[in-house]
Design a protein that fits this description.
The protein has 116 residues and is α+β, with helices and mostly antiparallel strands. The protein has a single domain (2-115), classed as 3-Layer(aba) Sandwich (Cytidine Deaminase, domain 2). Helix content is 23%, strand content 22%. The chain has two helices and six strands, in the order E-E-H-E-H-E-E-E. Strand 1 and strand 2 (9-11) form a beta hairpin. The longest helix is centred in the middle third of the chain and has 17 residues, at 57-73. The radius of gyration is 14 Å and the shape is globular.
Length: 116
């Protein structure tokens, strides 16, 4: 989801569809719509292939790459949600402290907040 300055949506886009158990995502695919819709920030979300809401190392790395790409082009990643399939659970990488509101990265040691 692409957002304007006051967090009003400017665009909602499916930028990538992975295979059954994996996905290779590049920041340019995510940022393209944000750039074209003149967005100030983005929220990204994806389902976990195995259904668990615990972030993988790849999830953390993609989040870090999106933060770095956003810094370069001036589009802040404000949230990355991982959607599970057990009881409609999801995890916020922002609330799990993988992503700070300032966009700064922190270590991969996580305390998980899973929401039903």
């Amino acid at each position: 989801m692409c957002l304007y300055v006051k967090n009003q949506p400017t665009a909602i886009n499916v930028c990538h569809i992975g295979s059954l158990d994996a996905s290779i995502l590049h920041p340019r695919e995510v940022m393209k719509t944000a750039i074209m819709s003149n967005s100030a920030s983005i929220i990204v979300a994806h389902n976990q292939p195995i259904g668990r809401t615990e972030p993988s190392q790849e999830d953390i790395e993609v989040t870090k790459r999106l933060v770095e790409a956003g810094k370069i082009i001036g589009i802040e990643l404000i949230e990355h949600l991982l959607i599970g399939d057990d009881n409609h659970q999801y995890i916020s990488l922002f609330l799990a402290h993988v992503l700070h509101s300032s966009g700064e990265k922190i270590s991969a040691s996580l305390s998980f907040l899973v929401v039903n």
